[in-house]
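Q: Joint fold for the lines below.
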Amino acid sequence: MVKRVACPVMNDAPETRRRRSDARRSIDAILTAARTLLGHQPDASMEEIAQAAGVTRQTVYAHFASRDALITALIDAAGAETVEAIDAARLDTDPPVTALRRYLDIGWQLIRRYPYLLTTALARTPPGSEAAHAAGTDHLEGIIRRGQDTGDFATALPSGWLAVAVVGLAHTAADQVAAGRLDADQAYAVFSESALRLCGVPVPGPVRDESRHRSSAVQQGSME
Amino acid sequence: MVKRVACPVMNDAPETRRRRSDARRSIDAILTAARTLLGHQPDASMEEIAQAAGVTRQTVYAHFASRDALITALIDAAGAETVEAIDAARLDTDPPVTALRRYLDIGWQLIRRYPYLLTTALARTPPGSEAAHAAGTDHLEGIIRRGQDTGDFATALPSGWLAVAVVGLAHTAADQVAAGRLDADQAYAVFSESALRLCGVPVPGPVRDESRHRSSAVQQGSME
DNA sequence: ACCATCCTTGACATGATGTAAGACTTCGCG
DNA sequence: CGCGAAGTCTTACATCATGTCAAGGATGGT
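A: Joint structure:
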């Protein structure tokens, strides 16, 4: 039934290594703690992460060979989750504009859930995370290319560039949220509008005027 | 190379403190070494930087209170240099589209010269560099707002967002260059084209020959 | 030539990462 | 239930980067 994400980049046996229940619990706790803790404190130490997970630092090292390995596992897990969501959305059968919109929506939710991934992890991509990162980008590129073929998107810019540019815009939007200059809803609005515009989609509708600024307290990166 | 940038964020006296010639020489060597060394090795140690500058680690600390202070000085110097170039370009008198183009050009040259600034320094902005960074963005925002007022740019998106989005696109383009997926000229072409498009400027001309290619699907991440 | 300034050497403290060995606890299963 | 294995904890150690300090030598400016 529920297939657990299956431990990503570990250091022990290749994979199919059945682990004891408490081991899985520890791994899960570490991953969760790292996710939330690094979310608003990207340079937290292994000690702090371990403490937040309720284990010892050595236990962390028992499961993740290094700090980078932990980060990579985090990225891989999030990436796998997102790819799953994208696959489930069956975007390949939707018209390109719709597919792009839905892709943007899914991607943004990923960002909302794992703010850390944009702050630092993706800035200096640790080795090994390229694959997971490229998976999502490739899918996006496919959508864009399809839209270009059907004439829905402009062809002046190569699809490969547009894909990374859209991802870059997402980062920028997330940074604005973290900096407190936009709230999450505003950020998503301007981000998706910008992405569509970048792809040459004739601006669909009103960007949702911000005359009424709803103050939905959704900020996440409120570092001191 | 007329006037030296004047020591930026130092730890000693505010500024009016005349330094001995060899001190200035050391500072300059450190700054230069840090610039180039961090360019392709963003996590070089103070020791390495000092060595590259031909001084001792302690000498570096004699001029820069900390690693962050050194980074900040680097950013400030580059920022000041760029602001100077922008001011000299008298962009406020040009028509908005021209001003934006020239701005993009100047900004891109900054990126070309100081690749390090995008890699890491701007990712996790050290305290104190906000001012220098905001200076350039403010100027850009002014241009965009002016273009929106004159009707040259679209008004669907707020100028503040567009400014940071354009800067973000520059980062993305630079990353592509760093990753070897684009060369500098291609990157600049797609970047400037994208920025214009984002601002709603009717696409001026063909960026590249994208004549019905339909051939190979760009380069997709086929790692292993 | 003199003196303040600067550089250098060497040492020290701290904190984070990573490694290692032994004891203790818990899980899985017969 | 009880035993072995897997996992965790404690303690300890090694290493490296950052940052600080003090004393002595070199250099520049006037």
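Q: Anything notable?
A: Residues 1-16, 205-224 of chain B have pLDDT under 50 and may be disordered. The two ends of chain B are 48 Å apart (CA to CA).
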